[in-house]
## 1
Amino acid sequence: MNDVATSRIYYTKPSITTLEIGYATDAASNGWGERCYDYIHRFEAMFRQHLGVKHAIATSSATGALHIGMAAMGISVGDEVVLGDINWIASAAPIIHLGAKPVLVDVLADSWCLDPAAVEAAITPRTKAILAVHLYGNLCELDTLREIGRRHGVPVIEDAAEAIGSVWHGHRAGSMGIFGAFSFHGTKTVTTGEGGIFVTNDDTLYEKALTLSNHGRARGEARQFWPETIGFKYKMSNLQAAIGCGQIERIEELIAGKRRVYEYYHNALRNLPLRMNPEAPGTINGYWMPTIVVDDNVSFDRAALLDAFKADNIDGRVFFWPLSSLPSFKPHPEHVVSHSLSDRAMNLPSYHDMTDEEQDRVIACVRRLLVPES
Ligand SMILES: *Cc1c(COP(=O)(O)O)cnc(C)c1O
């Protein structure tokens, strides 16, 4: 029995069709030996074309893509990388693995992404990059950040793991920084189970990243098993890439599904004292995670909303914590926007084929909590 009134609502799940299953089956049957890279190369070519970039390297995760990219930039011990305080740990961990220091700054209240003024104030002679993370599909102020970067000689990296489908004034998120990283984890808009991709328009950076991604073996090296440096092993498998090829063929449909789910929530919740993911003029939001931020002047009990979800068999998903509130980081209570977001915001369940009835159950929980008399 799968009664729509009580069935479990996951916070997200992938959309897999016979197309992906067919490619995965073919990869499992035939994608070995001299064909063991076929789907990987096809996936990279499709993604390059989707994004409008010159180079792409499929990886085992976005974390790996960020690690390789930052290593290729030469980021190392003593260097600093500026990023938003409210973020998933995956954006910060590669910086620390390279021996560099993540410098956390507060975010903007409307976009939940880097505050450019705070970024500029945080730049020092050791700053090697600004890491622009497009949170939940929302876009960073890329023009301002790149202008600040140009003035200080500091490149902007885009962590676009959550920004499939997001577009900044005609350019896809992830295509505008010195490099971009995407995730194809099972919760993301496009999935390969686990997976990621490194993208760039910079020929030199691409060659360095390619060598690092292949255990330090340079393209064109005639000797077998001859690494010229110590690299990484963060490759995507042909099997995963096969699923990815099916997903990229369907990417417009996958993005449209996420946008449809957001619009339905946005419309139903528009009269409540809350804000949702913004879509600034000239931009498109891929809406990876529809998110509510309850207004400051309204009392909001996040635990009560989580309980209400749980009682109706709905997965509740809290907004990220400020990284500075985690045990591995120095506290920054002065980052008031980041702390307020983590107290007052929640992600709402969303998957590409979520039904109106399922969304109505989520909406009813939010309404009950925020409009007690309704
Ligand atoms: C999911 C995510 C990552 C990490 O992706 P993995 O593929 O799990 O390594 C990095 N950055 C952001 C912003 C993410 O949402």
## 2
Amino acid sequence: MTEKSLIDKKFSDIEYNLKTIREEIAEAALKSGRRPEDIDFMAVTKTVDEIYINHAISCGINLIGENKVQEMLRKKPSLNLDGVKKNLIGHLQSNKASQIVGQVDMIESVDSLKIAKEIGKQSVKKGIVSDVLIEVNIGREESKTGFLPEAAEENIYEISEIEGIKVCGLMTIPPICEKNAELCKFFENIYNMYVDIRAKKIDNVYMQILSMGMSSDYTEAILCGSNHVRIGSKIFGPRIY
Ligand SMILES: *Cc1c(COP(=O)(O)O)cnc(C)c1O
């Protein structure tokens, strides 16, 4: 195939995948008593070339996610970001906070008090308030960052006091589970946490976003209460690193 026909093929794959995912999101939303438009559909664009990201945007994607600061900053100038939100979804190191604060619409991966303080500090310096989600390590996995479930609430109280930060909800990546019931238990646990914390009406904490669900589990996540799914490979194909 020529390069042009390869690109055309990939464009049509992306269109087909987006259509399929939208239908499934809509179905899961309705099943769980919500409207399709109540669910944010993020395209996770790590390792994806700008030409394909722009194609997804031209097909209606209005929220993208990158997990690395450098990659986000490198691609940004080549993207058609009019009306498109861009979130950081990967672990953020303190020494990179100054580069990313003000460059994204939300940092979904606040996984320590230290990084929350640094984001706050850099935001105050720039005269802005940064929207953030609190990442919870719902499966208590060694390999993952995020607050342990039992520590999340007290840390949210502390983070709520930090100037320059607005807590907008929770984010999680569950453990790989063989059984659906096992996976749903993790999703339900964090959903309950989200509802409990919201009910406490903590000053400066707005529990509005529950970010969970990726290519392999977004329908289950929505059925368990997610309102913000982050989908990469199911849109763009397998990632080549
Ligand atoms: C890569 C990534 C995703 C998307 O993963 P897929 O399985 O390709 O959908 C979602 N969330 C985070 C934090 C990621 O790093």
